[in-house]
Sequence to fold (269 residues):
Amino acid sequence: MKRVVIVASILLAFATPCTATQVREGFPYQLDLSLESGVTAGGLALFSGAVAVGRGQEPLTLDEIGQLGPEDVNGFDRFATGQWSTTAQDVSDALVLTLMAAPLGLAIATPGSRESWTIAAMYGEVLLVGNGLGELLKGVVNRTRPFAYNTDLDIPQQAKLGVGARRAFPSGHTMNAFAAAVFLSSVYAKLHPGSAARTWMWAGSLTLAATTGFMRYQGGKHFPTDVISGAIIGSVVGWGVPKLHEVDGVDLTINPSGGGVGIGLLLRR
Fold:
């Protein structure tokens, strides 16, 4: 989690000067100081909440582990309690790192320093908001990972006794994979509206993201509902952040009023 915050902070710090300058005509995205400040503050608030909640998490005891049984899990998720594969875990690590690096490659390959940093800043916000929300939910939900239910002797007891064994929901790997995939594909499609590669970009990146989620299930790290939730969160954040930055896009406004708070969407043209 700390590494994600550091990477996101570096991207946003270097991109800050771009909020005061105009990108080239025809570039579909634009940074705005008030928007970047709000999104960054929101992401940092989520991370702060996640840290505070995480400090109160307690690991499972040996007695609690001994009382766990597959029958305690809903039918849809139950089969995950019999899964365990360190190979699948390693594959998921490699896949998510590959996907998370891809948007940075797109930023570097985009002509123009302001334009490159605009993409990098948007991606930094995706990482910040997505992981902040994901980590907060992990601490609040406090869901036990499937491998803790598994009596396979190959599973290290120490893994079950760690605090991480109670941070199943949602799947962070899947969230990051889908956030990167959707961000990469949607931004690429906006930058290259006439390119035939757009379809392949969507298909390839989403296939890798889905494979990441399946590997987390097969590795015994997550239940199907953890994976599905991570995919939804990642997809929404990966699509929503660049959408807010589109030159012809959507403005999100939150206005206090006498009767409460009003939320408005404004289409920019």
